[in-house]
Specification:
The chain is 34% helix and 26% strand. The chain contains four helices and six strands; from the N terminus they run H-E-E-H-E-E-E-H-H-E. By secondary structure, it is α+β, with helices and mostly antiparallel strands. The protein has a single domain, classed as Beta Polymerase, domain 2, CATH 3.30.460.10.
Length: 123
């Protein structure tokens, strides 16, 4: 599955589960790890896991399976590695702490969607 379609499915899945702000960063030329970072967050571990489950389901329907998954057990920062696209789903507090968007501040933002996170984190 091409990068554009992976990002589109991730956006759709995150919005379905009422994720927080969605940012897609162009990492080409900045990071050898991936061409794009997709970043979003949830208000609770339960919501973070629901967002990830929805993204995984949508991508699996299109035939895409992540090469690796990290952080699934803890649910504070889950990374799905689709080779050219890294999907980062944070617990809101972890996102504020790690500030990934600031760390990679030179990366162009291809997409920014302000979303209202579910207050109770039920997603």
């Amino acid at each position: 599955m091409e990068s554009k379609r992976i990002i589109e499915a991730a956006v759709e899945g995150a919005r379905e589960k009422k994720a927080g702000r969605i940012v897609v960063m162009d990492m080409r030329g900045l990071s050898p790890a991936a061409d794009y970072f997709f970043i979003t967050s949830g208000a609770s571990v339960r919501q973070v896991q629901a967002i990830v489950d929805e993204i995984l389901d949508r991508l699996a329907r299109g035939g895409a399976v992540p090469k690796r998954q990290e952080g699934r057990a803890e649910g504070r920062w889950i990374v799905l590695d689709y080779l050219d696209v890294f999907i980062h789903v944070f617990l809101r507090e972890a996102r504020d702490y790690y500030r990934l968007e600031s760390l990679w501040g030179d990366a162009p933002r291809l997409l920014e969607i302000e979303e209202e996170e579910s207050k109770n984190g039920d997603g």
